[in-house]
Structures are given as C-alpha cells and as structure tokens.
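Page 37, continued from 36.
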C-alpha cells in the first residue's frame, strides 16, 4: 500500500493532504455553516456512520472552510470515520489494524521535547488579556440543539502525576462554560482523574494541556486503556512506534506541562481543586452531548473545572471535531480494543484467534466479534475461554460473538448468518451477571433490570456461533469455481 500513501502523514495537515489525493475520502465546502447544531447536522448525512440517527452513511471526511462568526478558523470532521480511511492514514490493510496497534505497544518510542519554536505556538492568546474570550475565539460545535453547550470533542488532554511525574494522554468531553472555563467529564478509572485527585488532595491545581488537531496516529494511540497501558504508560509512545519516530512535544507557555508540538490548537490551563460546575448551567437542557452508543448523555451536576491560562495555535488553524456516535469513535476506541484483545488471546492460546473486530454497533467498545479456529477436538470449549479472556482484556466490553474461521468478521451479514445457522440460544449463550461495564450504556441502570445494582453494571454475554468440532463436516460453505473476473469486467476491483 505504501506507494499510494504520499505525502507521508506527520500532522493533521499532511493527513488531509493524503486524503485529498485519494478518491472519495475527502470533501470540503465554502458554504458558511453555523457551528450550533448545523455543522453536525450536515455531516450526519455526508459521512458520520456509526450509531448516528438514521439516515446516515459511511462517507468522506469533510472540511468546513467558512464557519459563522469565526473568520480564519476552519473545522474538519470525520477524518477517521471509516476503517478504510484509517488504513490509508496508518499505511495498513484495514483488517490488520488491530495487529499493527498490538505490535506498536511492544515497540513504543517515548515522546521528546522539540527544539525551537513549535508550530502550535505561532499565535498566542493569553487569558489574562481582558479581550480574551474562548467563546468567540474557537468554533467549538454544539452538536445538537439540546446540547449543554459548545464542546471540544477531539481535545487530547495531557497531564502528569503530581507525585511521580508520569504523564498520560486521553480524550474527554470539554464543555465551554465561560470566557476562560471548561468543564471536563472524566470517566471513572481514567488516569488523568487519578492525577487530579492527588493534586486536589494536596489542595493544588493540576496543570493540563489540551491539544486539538494532530496526527491521527496520536488520536488512536491515546485511546488505549488498562490493562494494556497501565498507570504510568504514556500512550504517545505508541504513536511514536506507529510512525517510527518520537512524537515531538512543546513546553507550554503558562503552565508547567507539555503539549503536542504540531497541534493545530493548544489550550493551556489548570484543573482547579475543589471547584465543580453544573455541565448545563448556561442552557438548562438537562442534556450533555451525543455519546458513542447513539444517545445524548445527561448533563452532570458537578464536574471539575479547567481554568484557561492561554490558547496557542498555528496560523489559520483547523479545529478538529467529531460526532460522538459517528464511526470516528469506533476507529479511535475500537482498534486499540482489538489490539488489546488480540495481544491477550495470542498469549493465552497462540494460533487459535485469527482476528477481532470491535464492531461499529457497539461504538468500538460494547461488542467484539472474535474469529476462532478450532484445529482439533481438544479446542472445543476454548472459543468460550477466548470470549471470557476478551472481557478481561477490555473491561468495558459487554457482548462477544465468536465465529469460525470461514466467517468474515468485518461483514455484519456474514456474522449474522453464522448466528442464524450455527447458534442455538439455549446451549450457545453464556451470561455473566453483575459485572462492571461502561456507564454510557443507558440499559445499564437499576431501573432497567433488578439484576443491576448500580449504574454502569451489566450482564456480559457470549454468543457462541461456532460449529461443534465433531460436526464441522456438516457446515461446509458452498464452494464456487475460481475465475478471472477481469476477463469479463476489465475495470472490476
């Protein structure tokens, strides 16, 4: 694939240049768009895909060149909204992306501090300037008309443990609350939240940088989670391995922290100790924003606050954003999920698990399809062990479907065919009740089922859609003659 991947990708702009050179992967518009609900409304039709409200579809990334009220700032979305596009951006066959990420964890390259003035600091706005107002500086979209407010959805939050100095990078939803304040929702268990708690206990603010618009490899690497990347593991080192070159960092101007040097935009600030704000205090909608399962999350009553010290950016910056339920979330969350499951299963039962797909319908988190090869009679039952191990590899996983090696796990029709012809509900369904999962799944609440004691708990389920080994000869797919289609259709691909 490499010969088709020019120019090489090293930041957001080179990623866009690559997609521009590929048919059907990128579009732009010069029609002015309102960042309040309209921008997301447009992209829902153009290419959001994922769990977005229908009709939607898989389509190209899209650049909005004119954003109402924000001259000089463009907005791009959907850069990673399809698996095929991520394959182009990472120079990898789409079905092999999980393996690429798995290997990158093992070959991590630590980030380095850049020398000289970084691109992300070409223009500087200090929050102490009375003219500073984040609300008029950056066009953070309001994804729906009932959102709590404008959100940065692609902000890479970077902070360090106040005791050990170990750093972590992750993505959190950030709602603009005032001219110089953001609220930040940290999913329980995230490393930056652990850092924040340590700083708060000491009565100190936690310095944090928020980098927006970077190399797609960084976004995907940042979405790895424990146990693959335990506390103290800097996910930027995975991005370094993906590119074969260390990610360059820059020293922030107003806080003792670093940011990604080639970012389009960097917000410098501090997570304040013992300060909380209601997420929808400016709108009173009771809603937050669309989340990956396809529903709008509830506004949180009390969230930590980031006090902004400065905003720096490149000349004519590009603000990168995503729709929460879009296919972009599947790429960022799902491919690292696949890598984590593949790694653990390879160590547990080498040669048996051929591939894993963190399926779109689960937002890359809730559903995995495992392709399992039974090579001998003694492998019977190991496919179910593989599913249980997958739950350990990625704790937020809710359901696993296991299929045989002749099933295309990236083709939902093929997976559901296996379920209809190789699955009996009474003997091929395994359930594990009362297990912690993901709090954004709205069915995981006590009101839904008496088996759920607290929000975020679930019954994890395995659907074993594999053929019993001793019956495999009864389940052979019809074999068709191999032919050269190009004899009949020369342009066939």
């Amino acid at each position: 694939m490499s010969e088709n991947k020019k120019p090489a990708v090293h930041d957001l702009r080179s990623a866009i240049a690559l997609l521009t050179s590929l048919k059907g992967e990128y579009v732009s518009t010069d029609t002015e768009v309102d960042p309040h609900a309209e921008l997301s409304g447009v992209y829902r039709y153009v290419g959001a895909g994922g769990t977005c409200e229908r009709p939607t579809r898989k389509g190209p990334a899209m650049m909005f060149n004119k954003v109402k009220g924000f001259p000089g700032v463009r907005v791009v979305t959907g850069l990673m909204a399809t698996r095929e596009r991520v394959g182009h951006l990472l120079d990898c066959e789409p079905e092999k992306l999980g393996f690429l990420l798995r290997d990158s964890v093992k070959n991590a390259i630590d980030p380095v501090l850049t020398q000289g003035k970084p691109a992300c600091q070409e223009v500087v706005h200090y929050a102490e300037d009375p003219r500073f107002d984040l609300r008029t500086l950056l066009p953070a979209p309001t994804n729906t008309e009932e959102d709590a407010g404008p959100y940065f959805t692609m902000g890479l939050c970077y902070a360090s443990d106040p005791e050990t100095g170990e750093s972590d990078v992750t993505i959190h939803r950030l709602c603009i609350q005032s001219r110089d304040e953001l609220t930040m929702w940290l999913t329980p268990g995230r490393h930056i939240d652990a850092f924040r708690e340590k700083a708060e206990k000491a009565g100190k603010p936690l310095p944090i940088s928020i980098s927006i618009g970077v190399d797609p490899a960084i976004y995907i690497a940042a979405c790895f989670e424990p146990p693959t990347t335990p506390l103290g593991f800097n996910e930027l080192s995975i991005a370094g391995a993906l590119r074969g070159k260390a990610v360059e960092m820059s020293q922030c101007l107003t806080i003792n922290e670093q940011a990604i040097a080639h970012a389009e935009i960097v917000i410098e600030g501090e997570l304040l100790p013992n300060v909380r704000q209601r997420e929808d205090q400016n709108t009173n909608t009771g809603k937050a924003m669309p989340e990956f399962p396809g529903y709008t999350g509830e506004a949180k009553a009390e969230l930590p606050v980031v006090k902004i010290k400065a905003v720096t950016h490149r000349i004519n910056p590009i603000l990168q954003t995503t729709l929460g339920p879009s296919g972009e979330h599947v790429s960022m969350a799902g491919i690292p999920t696949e890598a984590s499951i593949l790694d653990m299963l390879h160590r547990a039962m080498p040669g048996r698990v051929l591939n894993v797909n963190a399926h779109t319908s689960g937002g890359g988190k809730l559903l995995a399809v495992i392709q399992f090869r039974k090579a001998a009679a003694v492998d019977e039952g190991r496919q179910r062990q593989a599913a249980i191990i997958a739950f350990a590899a990625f704790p937020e996983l809710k359901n696993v479907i296991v299929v045989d090696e002749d099933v295309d796990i990236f083709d939902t029709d093929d997976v559901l065919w296996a379920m209809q012809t190789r699955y009996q509900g009474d003997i091929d369904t395994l359930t594990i009740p009362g297990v912690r999962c993901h709090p954004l799944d709205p069915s995981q609440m006590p009101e839904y089922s008496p088996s759920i004691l607290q929000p975020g708990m679930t019954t994890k389920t395995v659907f074993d859609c594999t053929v019993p080994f001793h019956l495999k000869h009864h389940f052979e797919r019809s074999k068709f003659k191999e032919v050269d289609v190009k004899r009949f259709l020369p342009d066939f691909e």
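The mean pLDDT is 94. Flag for discussion at group meeting. The first strand starts at residue 26 and ends at 29.
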